[in-house]
Each structure stands twice: as structure tokens, then as C-alpha cells.
Amino acid sequence: MKSFLSLIPFASLIALIFICVSVFGTDALDGATQVSLLIASAICVLVGYLTGRVEWDALEREMTDKIASCMPSIIILLLIGAIGGTWMVSGIVPTMIYYGVQVLRPEWFLVSSSVFCALVSVMVGSSWTTVATIGVALMGIGRALGFDDGWVAGSIITGAYFGDKLSPLSDTTVLASSVSGTPLFTHIRYMMTTTIPTFCISLLVFTVAGLLINVSGSSDVAFLEELKDTFFISPWLLLVPVLTGVMIARRWPAMVVLFLAALMAAVVAGCCQPELIAQIAGRAEDGLLASYEGVMKVIYAPTRLQTGSEMLDELVRTGGMAGMMPTVWLIICAQVFGGVVTATGVLRDMMGLLLRFVRGTGTLVGSTVMTGIFCNVALADQFLSIILTSSVFKDIYRERGYESRLLSRTCEDGATVTSVLVPWNTCGLVQSTVLGVATLTYLPYCFFNLLSPVASIVFAAFGWGIRREEGGRGG
After folding, report:
1. Neighbours of 314 (CB within 10 A)
2. Would you list the DSSP string of 232-257?
3. Facing residues of 402 across strands?
4. Lower Cβ count inside 10 Å, N or C end of the chain?
5. pLDDT by residue (tens digit) across 161-175?
6. Element (H, E) at 216
7. 464, 193 in Cβ contact below 8 A?
């Protein structure tokens, strides 16, 4: 009975989110989804009282711990907002767009974006950093070329998460290998079995799409001239992303890198774009006070530049730190829900229901994948999803004689790559906010993220590359 009562909070959340999306559309994340999470949390507390397993002190403690655990992500998110504003107004992203539009041919843009993001992500070990820097520039180029936002964001996210998944510098890669007890490079090599084929299929789809889609964007001289008339364009501005890449390569902490990247761009904005800074400050003349006020607003406030071109106005609009606040609000509400379902034992009951269906290799891997996806929905955090999924299934894999690398790979296929597909998950929130594209808009085009869980289950069902250790009992 308790197991079935545990379905109520999740069914309620899914129903509330569905209603929100139906009524509010892309504006659902402006507040309706947050309220839905709190209502679902209240329903979960009620279920906890009905089952006699609620202690309010434990609830508060779990919610507080969950919110505290995501504070580094919130700080990084705010810094990404600062980078979005400073890199745009300083002319760094416009410079990338200016030269990128001239170099990248439309028919090869989607596949090139995915490959480029994959290479960068492998080197830096972070999908967030990749999307927040080169991904933003590629988004602008794609829009200038006339591609739909979903296609462009999908190609960027596909490449960024492929690289994040295979990079030895990635937090999720290290976490999945460590919690399952698998050596890091054994884990990475084994992941290639499912990761390489799914990425190749994704690149094939982007290649065909690029050749077939008839783009009608403005990649002509007029658009480039408007961009150059608005911003000071120079290859020297690319020194900031180069220096950012150097800091990343030297493995500086993410917060330090993002802060310095925003600070450098703010200085460049004040020096190279004085007229734009004065316009943002609302002052008639340039000057020290105007520069200070304008730069500060670029960092923390939304900015809209009047360029004379509607398309360009939309392209260079930024949100700053303030633009990230709805996302921060949503993360906090999601963590409240995650804390409540954990403290009341509702999540544990749901895991028990899943384990009932575990029989052979295919169902074991399938249950692991579905648990990772379910945790991404319920806990709204990929790190918690990886940890919990591995904890639930670790002993089962060991008892049945499966190698630990099968568990670590399945956790990545189920939890890591699908986190960006959940609108209220921290990854989905960050990427949709940074790229300016709703999660449900880019979701159908994230082919790598959609295919990875399927590939993991298919490979297990056919027994491809799966070995048992001696002494394990059959399943």
C-alpha cells in the first residue's frame, strides 16, 4: 500500500507540470512550475503523514541539505549570467558571430557545431562551460543563418554532453566511476561502446538536416554590416575566450574561471564599446561614471540595445545575473521537492517498485536507466541521480556477477545525459536559460541524449560487450 501511495506525489507533479505547460507554454518556468513543485511537495508531506513516517525536523533538515548542496551550482549560474551580458556587450560574442557567419557554410553548420562543442567539452570537461561560452556564440550564428532554435540548441547540447561524458576532467564522469568502484579510464573506455555509435548517428542526422533544411536567414553583407556598425569588431577581442581556455586547461576552479572571464569582458566592454555602455547607463555622454554604471548594469541587469535591426536587437539581448533569478527560484523549489520525497521515504518506495521488475540483464540495465531518468525528474539534479542510482543497484550488480563498469556506464547513459532534458532539472534549467531556448523546444533535437539510454538497454538486451565476473549468480 505504501508503495502505491508513493506514486501520488509524482503523479501529481507530472499532472501539474502538464497543466502548466498547456496553459502558460514557454512562460511556465516564470513561476507556475515553481508553484507546482511546492504543491507537489505539500502533497508528498501529506502522504508522509498518512503513512506515519514524517518528522517535521527531519523534513526541514533534508530540504535545507538539498538546497545547500546546490549552492555552488547557483553561484556558477549567476556567474554565467554575468558572462552572458559582458561577453555580448563587450563585442566578444558579436566578433565570434561576425567571423563565424563568414566561415561556416549553412549546410555544414549543425554538424560542425556539434563536433566543435564535443571537442571543447572533452578538453574542458564541462558541458556548462562549453554551452555558456562557445555555445552562446554558435547559437547566435545559427540564428543569423536562419536555423530554428531547436536544431541549433540540439546540436550544441549533443556535442557538449558527448564531450562531458567522455572527458576525464568531467565531474559526472569521475563521480559515476568512483561511486560504482570502477577505475576512471576503464569506465571511459567502456562507455565508448554505447557513446560512439549514438554520437555518430546524431552527427549523421545533423548532416542530413543541414543539407535538407532550406534556411532563409540573413547571413548576407547587410547583416554583417549592421553587426559591425553596432559593435567594435576585432580579432583582438578573442583574447578573452583564449585566456579563458587557458585557465580551464590549467584546471582552475570553475567559479574562478567564470568570474575572471566576466571581469575581463567587463573591462573590455568599458574600453572598446563606450557608446553602447553609455546607452545602457542612460547617459548622454561617455565618462567614468557612465562607464561604471553601464558595466555594472551589463553584469547584473537585462540589457536591450537599440541597433536599428529587429533581428539584431533580439540577438544581442542579454539577461545578466537578474535573468538567472527565475532559474535560481526553480532550482530551490526543485530541491525542496527532492528533500521531501527523500525524507518521507516516498523515493525509497518508488525504487522498491522498480526493483520488482528486475529479471535478466536487459531488465536490470533498463531498470537502472529508468531509475536515473526518474531521479532526474524527482530530484532535479544529475549528481544526486548518479549517486542514488549507483547506490540502489550496486549490490544487485555485484550479487549477479556483473562488472562494476556496466553499472557506471549505465548510470551515465541514464542519469548524466538525460538531465538536460528535464525542464526543472538544474542542467535543463541552466542550458535553456543560457541558450535562450525552452527545454521542450530543443528536446526533440538532442539526438545523442535521447539515444544514449536506448542504446544502453539494447546493448544489454543482446548481451553486447557484457561479461560476468566469476562467482556471480544468474539473473
Report:
1. 12
2. ---GGGGHHHHHHHHHHHTT--HHHH
3. 468
4. N
5. 998 888 876 778 877
6. none
7. yes
Q: Which amino acid is at 260?
A: L
- CA dist., res. 374 & res. 283, Å (int): 51
Least confident of 152-156, 308-312, 366-370: 308-312
| CB neighbour list of residue 370: distance below 8 Å, 6 or more residues apart | 354, 414
Do 258 and 83 touch, CB atoms closer than 8 A? yes
Burial of 146 (0-12, 13-18, 19+ CB in 10 A): middle
Cα–Cα distance for residue pair 322/341, rounded to 1 Å: 30
Q: Is 58 left (phi over 0), alpha (psi -120 to 50) or beta?
A: alpha
Instruction: Quote the cell numbers at residue 91.
Output: 563585442
What's at 37, amino acid-wise?
Answer: L
Q: b/e string for 369-394 if b means 16 or more Cβ within 10 A?
A: bbbbbbbbbbbbbbbbbbbbbbebbb
For 171, other C-beta atoms within 10 Å of its C-beta total 17
pTM attached to this predicted model:
0.69
The contacts of residue 244 (CB under 8 Å, 6+ apart) are 133, 257, 260, 261, 264
Q: Which three cell numbers stand for residue 270?
A: 568599458
C-alpha distances (whole Å) from 247 to each of 73, 261, 302, 452 are 19, 9, 27, 31
Q: Three cell numbers at 123?
A: 578538453
